[in-house]
Structures are given as structure tokens and as C-alpha cells.
Design brief:
By secondary structure, the protein is mainly alpha-helical. It contains 15 helices and eight strands.
Length: 541
């Protein structure tokens, strides 16, 4: 109404403009009313939708609550079942404990009953023993009375016997006592001497065991290769035609070689080789190197031979010095005089019974050092003395005197330690050793020389020793076969089982060892191994 009146008034007042304004106002009013109703309808729809969603959520919540209640009931039932099972299990265990307790109580009650019965029996037995003791005491008193009378009779008889003995022997009681004491004293002295001998033997045995232990430790820690040196060297030739060139026209080349080197050249039918023979290894080495250089060079004539020999000698001298330095460095001996090192290196070309003396000296130094360490003493002196103990052998073919005397002179000349000089002088017992180091050098020298393979033994002597070893072992009654093994270091004795028992094998081994010690000379020791074997065979048909 208000809008219409406004429109009418606008028309009446303003004509066309008023009409337009009125229409616009009416449109706005109608739009506002339309919007109101549309918004109201939208709100109604929204409210209805929210109510539906709320009802749906409520239904879902109720359903979920129902499910949760059911799950809770199931969990509660499971927990109740578990509690019931635990209760039943605990009840069962307690019943078992009660049952075991009742059983133990019943057993203890039974044991107490048995002990009570035993006590009653022991009480009765004790009463009986008391009665027996009283009866025995009464018998003892009667026996004492009888013994007293017997003692009086014995005393009287003893006096009579003593008088009779004095009359028969012609000695008084004091004289007889003195003679008896003398006899007893002699017996005691003899017994004491035997006991002292046994103690000394036991001490020696213990000392030998300890010494063997130390030596075995030293040998194990200083194991060395052994190879005997030969007195010949072999030089390979490219062909047999070279033999003619080495011999030369009318033999002039071979004579020049032998004259310049001092070595015998053996040229035989052996193909492509020449043999050099000499007991002096330095000369043999010079000849070998000279011949190899001449073969390589191809120019072989007397002047060239002399030139090469001089050159090789200088090379060998340099090698000798180097060998001495290497030996000193290997065993850890420092501060040696340069001339002593040169002399020591010459031992590389010196042999003793086929054993290289420089290698032997190195091994003696190592063994003496290890044994000194095992004994808890400073090993430096023993090591130094071991390395230099045979240094005299480097010059004994040039100077007069034994290698010991020459070694002592060299050591004194170059101001070696006094203990080292003493060990060199005493290592073959030329003088009595007075220091531990000298004794250790003696022992190390013996070990190195006695090792299997260290020294060369002639085939004839070796065969004779093996045959004698088997012969001695076979000479005993009951021995069937004997076998010497390990280069004569062990003898295996097979006995006849029907004639030698197991117990007798011990005595047989001891007897064989004693006879070997008395009748055979050998380095080191020989193991006697007695074997008794019984075999029985049957055949199933």
C-alpha cells in the first residue's frame, strides 16, 4: 500500500519520472519478498537435512554403542574364563604342594619310627657291651696278676741269662753294649750312605730332566736346515765341444786353471759337465766362478784365465766380508771388529765333517741365546761366544795351533770380552768352564753337531753302526726281529709273545738300552721301542 500510494503520488506529482520511480520501488519490494520466501524455504530444507543427518548419526552411535557393549561383554567373559583357569591351576598346584608336604611328613614320621627302633636296639646293644666290658675288665685284672708273676720269672731268668752270656762270651755288659753300638753305627752309616746316594741320583735325574726341557725348548725355537758340504763342485757345459776348449792345445788351458786356482779339474765321459775337486772350499768356489765366466766369455787361454782368477778372488773376498756381516746381523751380535767380521765370513767356505762352520756358528749362537733366556740370564754374552767359538777354524790351515788356540788369540787381539774368550777356550774342555755362558756354548755346540744330518758319516761306518745296533738288540732271549729306523736314532724290537709277557717288555727295553750304552758309541740318544703283538684269526665258513 505504501508503495502504491507512493507511485500514485509520484504520478500525480511528477508525471513519467514518477511512474518509473514507482515501478522500481515496487520491483525492489517484490524482489525482497521473493528473496525472503526463497531464503525461508532454503532454511527449512537445511533444517530438515540437519535433522536427518542427526538422526542418522544417532542411529550409528546407538549401533556402535551396542557393538562396543557386546565386545566388552566378550572381553569380560574371556577375562573371567582366564581368571577361572588361573584360579583352578593355582588351586591344583596348592593341592599338589599339600600332597607332597603330607607325603614328606609321612616319610619323616616313618623315618622317626625307624630311628626310634634303631635307638632301642642300640640301647639294648650298649647294655650288652657294658656287661661284656665289665667281664673283660675282670678278665684283664686276672691277666695282669698272671703277667706280673711271669715278669718276675722273666726278670730272674734274664739275670741268670746275662750272667751266663757274660761267662760264655767272656765280655762284660758294658763291653757288649759298646760292640753292639759299633755294629749299629756301621749299619746306620751304610744306610745313610745309600740314602745320600739315592738323593744325589734323584737330584741328577731332576737336573737332567730340567736340562732336557731347556734343550728341547731351544731346539724347537732354533730349528735349522742341515745340508752336508761336499768336496766337489760340478760345472755345467753348454756342449761337449767346450771340454776340448777348456783342455786347450796340449792341455795348456787346464794346466793354467789348475795352477792358478789350486783345484783339480776332472774331465771324464760324463756328458756336458766338469767336476772340480778340492778340500779347500774357497779355492773350489774361485775355480767354479772362474770356469763359469770363461764359458760365458768364450775366450779361454792362459792369460785370460789368470785375469779372470784375480777378478774372481776379489769378488769372493767381498762376498766373505758380506757373509760375516750377514751372520752377525742374523743373530743380533753388534760391535764386532771389522777384521773379526772378515775372519768370521771366511767360515762360509770352511767345513767340519761336511758341516758348514758358519751355519754351525750361527746355530750355536741361537741355541746358547735361547737356553740363557730360559735360565733367566743375559743372553748377549752366550750369543756372542757361540758365534765366535769356532773362529779359529778360519785360519787353522794357514797358522800353527789348534782352532781353539787360534780363536783365543784372535779374540784377545781384537779385545773381546773376557767371558767370550773363556767360552772359546773351554768349548772343547781344553780348560775347565767356570761360567754359565761357557757351559751353554758347550751344550749348544754339542746339540748343533749331533743333530741328524748335521755332519756327514761315511757309508761304511754308518752301515756297521746300524748292523751292530740290530745285532745287540737281537741277542736277547725272546726277541724275534729288530729294525733300526730314523738313521739309527730308534731301534724297534719285535718280541715273541709266547716267550715275553707284557710286564717283561719293560725290563727288556731297559736291559737293551743299558747294553747299547755299554757296547756302542753313537751321537745323541737311541730310543728302544719294544713291541709285543698277539694276533688271533678265525675263518667263518
Amino acid at each position: 500500500m505504501t508503495g502504491l500510494s507512493l507511485l500514485l503520488s509520484a504520478i500525480s506529482d511528477g508525471g513519467i519520472v514518477g511512474i518509473a520511480v514507482g515501478v522500481a520501488v515496487i520491483g525492489l519490494v517484490l524482489g525482497a519478498v521473493s528473496c525472503y520466501f526463497i531464503y525461508k524455504k532454503y532454511l527449512t530444507t537445511k533444517i530438515n537435512s540437519a535433522k536427518s543427518e542427526a538422526e542418522r548419526i544417532i542411529e550409528e552411535a546407538k549401533l556402535e554403542a551396542k557393538n562396543i557393549r557386546q565386545d566388552g561383554l566378550l572381553d569380560a567373559k574371556e577375562q573371567m574364563n582366564k581368571m577361572r583357569d588361573d584360579f583352578e591351576k593355582e588351586t591344583k598346584e596348592r593341592k599338589q604342594d599339600w600332597q607332597r608336604t603330607e607325603n614328606r611328613l609321612a616319610q619323616k614320621e616313618s623315618a622317626l619310627d625307624r630311628k626310634e627302633d634303631q635307638i632301642d636296639k642300640k640301647s639294648a646293644s650298649l647294655d650288652k657291651k657294658i656287661e661284656d666290658a665289665e667281664r673283660v675288665q675282670k678278665q684283664n685284672e686276672e691277666t695282669k696278676e698272671r703277667l706280673k708273676g711271669i715278669e718276675e720269672e722273666l726278670s730272674h731268668s734274664k739275670e741268670n741269662m746275662q750272667k751266663e752270656l757274660e761267662r760264655v762270651s767272656g765280655m762284660t755288659k758294658e763291653e757288649a753294649e759298646a760292640e753292639l753300638k759299633s755294629a749299629l753305627l756301621d749299619g746306620v752309616k751304610k744306610s745313610a750312605a745309600q740314602e745320600a746316594k739315592a738323593i744325589i741320583a734323584e737330584s741328577k735325574e731332576n737336573a737332567q730332566k730340567e736340562a732336557k726341557n731347556i734343550i728341547s725348548q731351544a731346539i724347537q725355537r732354533c730349528a735349522a736346515d742341515h745340508a752336508t758340504e761336499n768336496t766337489v763342485s760340478v760345472v755345467a757345459l753348454p756342449n761337449d765341444e767346450m771340454k776340448g776348449r777348456i783342455i786347450g792345445r796340449m792341455g795348456r788351458n787346464i794346466r793354467a786353471l789348475e795352477s792358478a786356482t789350486g783345484v783339480d779339474l776332472i774331465i771324464d765321459d760324463t756328458p756336458d759337465v766338469i767336476t772340480l775337486s778340492s778340500f779347500d772350499p774357497v779355492r773350489r768356489e774361485v775355480a767354479r766362478l772362474t770356469l763359469e765366466k770363461l764359458i760365458t766369455d768364450g775366450r779361454i787361454h792362459p792369460a785370460r784365465i789368470e785375469e779372470i782368477v784375480d777378478k774372481v778372488r776379489r769378488e769372493v773376498e767381498a762376498g766373505i766380508k758380506e757373509a760375516g756381516e750377514e751372520a752377525a746381523f742374523e743373530v743380533g751380535v753388534h760391535g764386532l771388529h771389522p777384521e773379526v767380521i772378515k775372519i768370521l765370513g771366511r767360515l762360509k767356505y770352511r767345513t767340519s765333517y761336511g758341516q758348514n762352520v758358519l751355519k754351525h756358528s750361527i746355530e750355536v749362537a741361537s741355541l746358547a741365546s735361547v737356553m740363557a733366556s730360559e735360565l733367566g740370564i743375559d743372553p748377549r754374552i752366550a750369543k756372542r761366544a757361540g758365534l765366535l767359538h769356532d773362529i779359529g777354524k778360519a785360519v787353522d790351515h794357514e797358522l800353527e795351533g789348534t782352532h781353539i788356540q787360534l780363536g783365543v788369540e784372535i779374540a784377545k787381539k781384537y779385545r773381546e770380552n773376557g767371558d767370550v774368550i773363556h767360552a772359546i777356550a773351554a768349548h772343547h774342555n781344553d780348560i775347565e768352564p767356570t761360567t754359565i755362558d761357557a757351559v751353554l756354548v758347550q751344550a749348544a755346540d754339542a746339540i748343533s753337531s749331533a743333530r741328524p744330518g748335521a755332519r756327514r758319516e761315511s757309508l761304511e761306518n754308518y752301515v756297521k753302526r746300524i748292523e751292530k745296533l740290530e745285532e745287540i738288540a737281537k741277542s736277547f732271549d725272546g726277541v724275534d726281529q729288530t729294525f733300526a729306523v730314523q738313521a739309527g736314532r730308534e731301534i724297534r724290537v719285535m718280541v715273541k709273545p709266547e716267550r715275553v709277557s707284557d710286564a717283561n717288555t719293560v725290563f727288556l727295553a731297559k736291559e737293551i738300552a743299558e747294553k747299547l750304552e755299554n757296547e756302542l758309541e753313537y751321537p745323541g740318544q737311541i730310543k728302544v721301542n719294544v713291541i709285543r703283538e698277539v694276533r688271533h684269526a678265525e675263518y667263518a665258513k
